[in-house]
Request: fold
Amino acid sequence: MRILKYLFLLLLLSLVALSIFVATQKGEFTVERSKIINSPKSSVYNYVNDAKNWKEWNSLAVEDSLIKITPSQISAGKGSFFSWQGKEGDGDLQTINVKENESIIQKINFNGNTADVSLSFKDTLGKTKVSWKAKGQMGFLFKVLTSFNGGAGKIFGLMFEKSLVNLDKKLDYEINTYSVKVDGLVNKTETFYLAQTFTSEFSKVGKNAGIVFAKITNFCKNNNITISGKPFIIYHTYDTVNELTRLSICIPIKDPIFIIEGSDISSKTLATFQAVKTTLTGDYSHTQKALDKTADYLRSKYLTVDPAFSRLEIYTIGKNEINNPSKWITEIYYPIKQKAEAKPTVLDPATTEEVVPKPTNQKEVPSEF
Reply:
């Protein structure tokens, strides 16, 4: 019995000593890891910035097939938020601020431990150096856990390292898997649409498009306007020297409507036109390759682009339908200038005067739309 009392007292003293040891450990921690990702900076930034992709690369989610993630309605950029429940615990992550293609600032709460998180993106000759840093405060239980597992630096550091490896592998496939097909001449039929027109820097087109697409879609819902088709962008001018474009962000609608003067949303009609169609399957970072291939086709066929506008892009399958960039489909249309048909000259043998032939009824070329 006396031995049991000594053992109990020893255990109690050990627990007290452990508690004192843990309590005196620093609750603050700072962890940082970096990795070169084999994908362009804008693609890496856009992928990481969208919370819907978190489960595809973060090790907490990748290693937990049963994790439950609840995202906010806005999944990317400032104000986006999501929470999760998994085998390693519960948590939530909120994006506090972003700098386009440069950095993401977040606040994380994991099992009652909070931290300020920052991700920075630096271009390295077509690849991207991602630096991931967390600075936070540990609660007592988490300090106990880290004490037996090498400290917070090791636990968070390992999670960061695994996640960055996952990110590299995922993007290496998703971003670099693409195809470009020039479909040739097609007829694009008349389209009624709502649009907002403005000038944008090339680098901000994606961000602006996401905002305006959502704005016009909500306008349609609030006013019982039937959306008829996929969102598209009309590039009116495309200045490659100054990297500026005059564009219209558009949502197709079933019937034309009247909008009062002064609204930044306008109702317009895109008349039927003939175009060279190119289909890009893959991430938007390959758009220039699609444009270059289309330009080669235009030259080879001696076709002239109609100056009415630069081009039109329809987002047949995009990030709102599927998270995988390799499966996105963008249809690109270059309007073609119609060649004037030369009227045949017919001479009347009796007078040797030119006779203008009577017009004939021409069968309309069927449209693929």
About this structure: Confidence is low (pLDDT under 50) at residues 13-23, 345-369. The chain is about 30% helix and 35% strand. Residues 152-176 form the longest helix (25 residues).
